[in-house]
């Protein structure tokens, strides 16, 4: 009489290795021009989500809260109040 010990092994990859491994692309937020740097009108100064930094004189705020220069000039970042910044 013959006896067989049949075992079935997994033939698929582990679930974790296939279900992970995705991430969204970075949005490249943050300062685009430094303090004291000369910029032309329309230049993007700071990309942000929400108003982390508020626009100052001759600085506009876009629909996605991006700060941009309205006129040619030199960039100045200054503190306003307790923790707020203004460009």
UniProtKB/TrEMBL annotation:
One of its GO terms (biological process) is translation. Keywords: Ribonucleoprotein, Ribosomal protein. Residues 1-33 are annotated as: Disordered. One of its GO terms (molecular function) is structural constituent of ribosome. Residues 22-33 have a biased composition (Basic and acidic residues). It comes from the Bacteria. PROSITE patterns: RIBOSOMAL_L27 (PS00831). Pfam families: Ribosomal_L27. InterPro entries: Ribosomal_bL27 (IPR001684), Ribosomal_bL27_CS (IPR018261). The keyword Ribosomal protein applies. NCBIfam families: L27. This is Large ribosomal subunit protein bL27. It comes from Listeria aquatica FSL S10-1188. The gene is rpmA.
């Amino acid at each position: 009489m013959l006896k067989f010990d049949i075992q079935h092994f997994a033939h698929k990859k582990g679930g974790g290795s296939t279900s992970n491994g995705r991430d969204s692309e970075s949005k490249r937020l943050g300062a685009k021009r430094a303090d004291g740097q000369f910029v032309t009108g329309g230049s993007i100064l700071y990309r942000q989500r929400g108003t982390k930094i508020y626009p100052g004189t001759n600085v506009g705020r876009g629909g996605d809260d991006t700060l941009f220069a309205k006129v040619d000039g030199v960039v100045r970042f200054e503190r306003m109040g307790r923790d707020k910044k203004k460009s």
